[in-house]
Amino acid sequence: QVQVAESGGGVVKAGGSLRLACVASGETHGAWTHHWYRKAPGKEREWVASVSSGGITNYADAVKGRFTILRDTVENTIYLQMNTLKPGDTAVYSCAAKWGPYESWGQGTQVTVSS
């Protein structure tokens, strides 16, 4: 199994940037697909972005063009670079690693965007 842990959340003004990191440990073979999700207060958890084992990236429409998911295979770290942040991006952001029937989730990191 793989374990993941997020870091990099914080408070930023609208229009600003943050970079989240998700460090993977354990069985970090290259077959895992890594995802970022977010959950805002009073809303359902929302998928944000993913990067496949082959490096293919996908984004939710709400963040396309503003967020970039990056994978550092040497450091076993998946980054979420978030630019032009909006108050609507305020949420707890969680990283998830998925491979077949297996999933591993981090505890999440809070991102707050002030207007």
Notes on the structure:
- A hairpin with a 6-residue loop joins strand 4 and strand 5 (46-51).
- It is built from no helices and 11 strands.
- The strands form 2 sheets. Strands 2, 4, 5, 6, 9, 10 and 11 form a 7-stranded mixed sheet that branches. The chain has a 4-stranded antiparallel sheet with strand order 1-3-8-7, with no helix packed on it.
- It has 115 residues and is mainly β.
- The model has no long low-confidence stretch (mean pLDDT 94).
- It is globular, with a radius of gyration of 13 Å.
- It has strands spanning 2-7, 10-13, 18-26, 33-39, 46-51, 57-59, 67-72, 77-82, 91-99, 102-105, 109-114.
Which structural category fits the helices and strands?
mainly beta
Output the number of helix runs. Answer: 0
Q: How many beta-strand segments? A: 11
What is the H/E string?
A: EEEEEEEEEEE
Percent of residues in helices: under 10%
Mean pLDDT across all amino acids:
94
Low-confidence stretches: none
Principal-axes geometry comes out as globular
How far apart lie the N and C ends? 40 Å
Oligomer: single chain
Distinctive features:
115 residues; mainly beta; seven-stranded mixed β-sheet; four-stranded antiparallel β-sheet; globular
Sum this structure up briefly:
The protein is 0% helix and 57% strand. By secondary structure, it is an all-beta fold.
